[in-house]
Amino acid sequence: MKKVGLKISIVFIFFVSIVSCLKPVQYPDEPAVEFVQFDIHGDSGIITFYFTDGDGDIGLNANQINPPYDPGSFYHYNVYLEYYEMMNGNVVKGTMDPNGNNAKFPQNDTVPYDTIPNGFRIEDITPFGQNKSLKGNMQLVLSPYYNFISNHNDSILFSIMLIDRSLNQSNIVFSPVIVR
User: 49-72, pLDDT tens digit by residue?
Assistant: First the structure.
C-alpha cells in the first residue's frame, strides 16, 4: 500500500512540476477584440465580444473619476459601441435625429452631437498574481438595442472598441448586419 501511495505522490509531483514550467500565454499590452454574437431578447439585446489584454489593465473602479477618467472625458468610459443603421443600401451612423440626418460611415475623428449614447464603464477585472494576461468573453446588455424613433432601424450593426487603463485602444470590430 505504501508503494502505491509513493507512486501516486511521485506522479503528482512530476505533473505539478511539468505544469509549473509551462510559460503563461502572452498577449500584446494593447487590448484586442473580436465580435462573437448578438442575441435579441424582445427590445433588449446582448452583444458578446472576445477580448485579450497582455498586461490585464482592463476596467475602472467606481472611484476612478480623476483625469483622464473624469466624467466628460473620452476615457471616462472603457468600452465604446457605435450604432449604425442601413439607409438606402448604405451603412450610416445612427443618431437621435428622427429625420435620418445621419453621419456617413465609417466615422472620422469627429462625432456628431446627436449620436446615440455609446459609452460603457466596465469594472476593474485585473487578475491577481504574476500573470496579468487576460482573455475572455464580455457581454453588454443594450435596452433597447435599436433607435425606436428611427425609420431605418430594421437593419442595424454595431462597432466595438475597448480601452485599457493605460489608454491603449483596441482594434475596432463590427457586428454583422442585425435584422430586426
Answer: 999 999 999 999 999 999 999 999
- 3-class secondary structure, 113: coil
According to DSSP, residue 74 is labeled G
Q: Under 8 Å CB-to-CB from 24, ≥6 apart: which residues? A: 131, 133
Phi, psi of 12 (to 5 degrees): -65, -45
Q: What is the pTM of this model?
A: 0.78
- Cell digits for 25? 500565454
pLDDT digits (tens, 9 = 90+) for 129-152: 888 899 999 999 998 899 888 888
Q: How far apart are CA 52 and CA 33, in angstroms?
A: 7
Residues 39 and 34: their CA atoms lie apart, in Å, by 16
Burial per residue of 95-132, b for 16 or more beta-carbon CB atoms within 10 angstroms, e otherwise: bebeeeebbebeeeeeeeeebbebebebeeeeeeeeeb
Where are the domains positioned within the chain? 26-179
Could you say which architecture CATH assigns to the domain 26-179?
Sandwich (2.60)
pLDDT reported for residue 94: 84
Name residue 48's beta-bridge partners.
37, 139
